[in-house]
Every structure is written in structure tokens, then in C-alpha cells.
Amino acid sequence: MNLKDLYINYFVSKGHKQIPSAPLVPENDPSVLFNTAGMQPLIPYLMGEPHPYGKRLCDYQKCVRLTDLDSVGDKTHHTFFEMLGNWSLGDYFKKESIAYSFEFLTSVLNIPIERLAITVYEGDDKIPRDEVSADAWKSHGIKEERIAYLGREDNFWIPGDSGPCGGDTEIFYWRSDDEIPERFDPEDDRWVEIWNNVFMEYHQDKDGNITELTQKNVDTGMGYERVVAVLEGVDDNYLTSVWKRPLKTLMEIAGKPYEGNETSMRIVLDHIRTSVFIAADPAGIKPSNTDQGYILRRLIRRAIRHAMKLGIDTRSDFTTPLALTFIEEYKKYYKELEDNKEVILEVLKGEKEKFAKTLEKGLKIFEKVAQSSNKIDGETAFHLYDTYGFPIELTKEEATLRNMEVDEEGFNEKFKEHQEKSRTASKGKFKGGLSGNSEIETKYHTATHLLNAALKKVIGPSVHQLGSNITEERLRFDFPCDHKLTEEEKKQVEELVNKWIEEEIPVTHETMSKESAIESGAECMFIERYPDLVTVYTIGDISKELCGGPHVQNTKEIGHFKIKKEESSSAGVRRIKAVIEPKEN
Ligand code: SER
């Protein structure tokens, strides 16, 4: 039986009423473009309004999240996903919720208890540490070593920056053939989160004031595809039953196998599926340059570019068979796909034709430049990218066909300038982040400079610091990058940093005028933030940065460098968390 049916049947048998999946575009909430969680349509009821179906609800909810857009192409990230959820609106609370989750996982899905681990909220100055949940898990046989207490960043859930909220308990599954460690380490990504039970008993307003809600609620969310992957024992979501037929259709269209073409195939599949669902929504979204319409446009165009990479003739009607496969696959659960079939096919086809035209215009520019030069300069490459939607890969391919060169570095420069401008405009703030100065933090400061330099070598010169934050436990570094780092890239970065540490390179610093610093090629984030006299820290010929310090005197003092996490921080920005450990010898 399908996991969605198992889930609904189980909770219905426990007195829950199934509610239909709400539309993707929220009906009464202009503050978000799409539903991003199962609970979103239920906010008024979590706040105390009586729900017509009662106090125990369950559903599967379609969601679109764009925060992971840049990670799509890897094995696990998607822009569209389905969330299985069950709710108690002022009815049962922690103990019962945990009992249901435990029973569903171990008795319905038959997941062995040894493969499970739990996080609970460690509390803060306003909310107590959640011993009730920890005890409840223990009463079902979860060992103490498999329970971790985490803080607000990990185990507190609030929709956006205000609303009903509370601490949560998260359930993790050991998805690896490696021996399962006794002690649960939430940073070890062989443990994957599969279910999140939020205990919504508070309300937080926009100023951060917390008050108690009139009722204590439970809001749980389980990522459908992730759990299917767990149950089917694969670590690539696209190799689960969910994608079997769509992937087969795409391989037939492309005339290519999945192996060796994974990234583009995943992007085409993910983006076409999300586009199908957006186009089917009752809100009647059409591709445009604003709001949901713009998202739809971007998704379709990106899918087309990757279809081109796969060698698909994009003048052919290739979106139709793909869309039809998705409609077939999902119509049992989402009737709107069948009802709006013609609209969906037309939206995809129409946008594909529009894009073909701007592509043509872009190609004309190409021809024009080609008549008088054998080089596409950075400015033109960026103009092609920005105005005509030409990814740099496409510009390079077209250039090769005409025996032309592309100034990729110039393009990266322009890209960087543009990104800085738009980030500054949207965020208006950056943190230097280097403020503490204990011995370990000092080591982290220097490690941050090495990381920056290593990323430039491995990813490309467009990498630079967008944000940095150091604690005694780790460093955090944000930088522009259009893709999730591969295992290989992460390894190369780690190895480079460790190599430089081993080379025992002296770290020197000099005070000079801001102008000379810039002239000397020192890197700096926001030149206008620095005083006229600045300090430049130099690590051999590896790194030169304007910085307030403090730093170690020699890289050998740092220890062993290790990347713990690499994730999306916002669109086009990746975040690395890394630690340093004492050297082995
Ligand atoms: N709101 C929580 C989440 O999205 C649980 O549903 O994870």
C-alpha cells in the first residue's frame, strides 16, 4: 500500500479526520507565495478557532519550497514535496503524539527501533527543557544515548517570523549500511530526519514576545518522499518508485541513461513536476514576471536549459509526455491534475515557445559579436545571462561552435557584482562575525581565511565571504555558489586546508592605508566599512585579507580541519559549517 494511504488509515483509526490537501497558493495569506508546510492552512485553528472537522486532523499536503532551489540536482532536494501530517487542536499533547509516531513507525512501517534517534528541545530562558518528550521516548524503549537535546536553531518551529510556535521533537533514521553508533550525533548526516512533531503551545509576535496559546496543539510533518526512500532502501530519491515512470519517460525522450546524466535529469524532472502542480492550482497561475508566475517561469526555463544539456531537441514537444506522466502518477491523490490537464500542457508548451524566442534573440547578439571579434567579453556574457536567460554553459557551448573564446572570469566578476548589489539591497546587512578572541576562536579565524582561499581554488574565483560567524564550537562561512558542493569538492577543500596547515605557513600582518591594501590585492568584504588605516593578514601566497583578526602566528597551530555541513543559506548562497579538531599525533 502507498505510504500516504498507510498514514491516513493509521491516523483515521486513531480518531483523526482526513482533511483535503489545500491549494498550493494560499487562499487567505498574501504573505507567502506557496504553502510551505502542512500546517500553514491550519494557522487560524492552531490559534484557537474551531475547525469544522474537529480536534484531530490528518492529511497529505502539497508544498513548494524555494529555499532549496540551488540544491535541486542532488539526490534529495526538491522544490515540490508532500508532507504527511497529523494535528491535535487542543486535544492530545506530547505523550500521545509520541506514542502515535512510535507505533506508526515501528508497527505499521516496521522500522527497527535500533535505526531511530530523537532530538528534543533543550529549552531557553522562557521555555523549559522538554523532559516530558524525552521521558515519553524512553518509555517506548528509545535509549538515552539516542536522545539529543538541541536549541532554538534546530528544535523550535515557527512559520516565518511570527505565529503559533513551540519546541519540537524530531525523529531521525539511520540511513547507511555502516554500523549504527550507540550514541546519536545529530551532526552525522547518515542520520536523516524523517518526522517532526511540533508542540505548539506558544505564540510569538513580530517583536519576539512569547505568550501562551489558549490551547496546546500538536503539529507534525513527515516528508513523504524521504520516507519512501528510507523504506525502499535507496539513498537517491529519484530511484524510488515515486520517480520510476517519469524517469523512464525522460530517458526515452533524451535517448540517454540516467547514469552520467543525473544532475540535469533530476533538475528537469523536479522542475517539470513542480510546474505541473503550480499550473494545476485553482489560483490559475500563468508564467509571468511577478510572484508565483515568475517562479513558474524560472522553473520551466531552467528545466528547458537542462533538457538542452541532455541533448533533447527543445523545439520538439517534449514537455507534454513528461507532464502527462506526472498527471497519471498523481491524479489519484490530486484530482486537480486531471481536471486541469489541458491548461497544464498549454502552460508548459507556451512558455517553452516564448523561451525559444528570447534564446533566438540572444543568439543574434552572438552572431553580431562574432562578426567583429573572436571573444565574448564578460559584460556580454553577463548581458546574455541576465537579459536572455543564457546560462554561462550555453554561452560557452555557442562560442565553441564559432571558434570563439569566453571571458569567464569577466563574467564571474559581473555576476559577483550583481549578486552583491541584489543581496545588499534585499538584506541590507552583513556580519563580519569575527568578534571573539579565545584561543580556539583565533584558530577558527585563520581557518576561515584558509577555507575562503580553498573554495576559490576548488569552486572558482567568484567565491568570496558573504557572511562569517565563529563560536568556540565551529566556524560558519557563507559564499555565493550556484550549486550544492559535491562530495568530491568538499573533500578537495578539506584536503587543501589541511595541506596548508601541514605546510606550517607563517601568518603575518601589516597595517597600511586602505588604498594600498586594495592595491596590494587584499580581499575585503565591504571596503566602506573599514577605517582609513587597516590591517591586512597574509598567509604565505595563499590568502591576503583585510581583517581585524586575531589570528594564529603559524597555520600549524590550527589542528585538523573538517567540514561538518554544507547547505543552502539562501538562493545562490551556500553555507559551510566546519570544525577543527586536535591533530591525531
Ligand atoms: N510545521 C512542521 C514542519 O513543517 C511540522 O509540520 O516541519
Secondary-structure topology with pairs:
Elements: H1 3-13, E1 17-18, H2 43-46, E2 56-64, E3 80-89, H3 94-108, E4 116-121, H4 131-139, E5 147-150, H5 152-155, E6 156-157, E7 163-174, E8 191-204, E9 210-223, H6 224-232, H7 244-254, H8 262-280, H9 291-309, H10 319-330, H11 335-339, H12 341-372, E10 375-376, H13 378-388, H14 392-401, E11 405-406, H15 408-427, H16 439-458, E12 467-470, E13 475-480, H17 487-502, E14 507-513, H18 514-519, E15 533-539, E16 543-546, E17 560-570, E18 573-581
Parallel strand pairs: 1-2, 4-5, 10-11
Antiparallel strand pairs: 2-3, 3-9, 4-7, 6-7, 7-8, 8-9, 12-13, 13-18, 14-15, 15-16, 17-18
The protein binds serine.
Residues 37-39, 85, 157, 196, 198, 219-221 line the site of serine.
Cα end-to-end separation: 54 Å
The proportion of residues forming helix, as a percent range, comes to 25-40%
Can you count the beta strands?
A: 18
Runs in which pLDDT lies below 50 for 5 or more consecutive residues are 425-436
Q: Beta-sheet strand percentage?
A: 15-25%
What is the structural class?
A: alpha+beta
What is the gyration radius calculated from CA atoms? 26 Å
Mean pLDDT across every amino acid position: 90
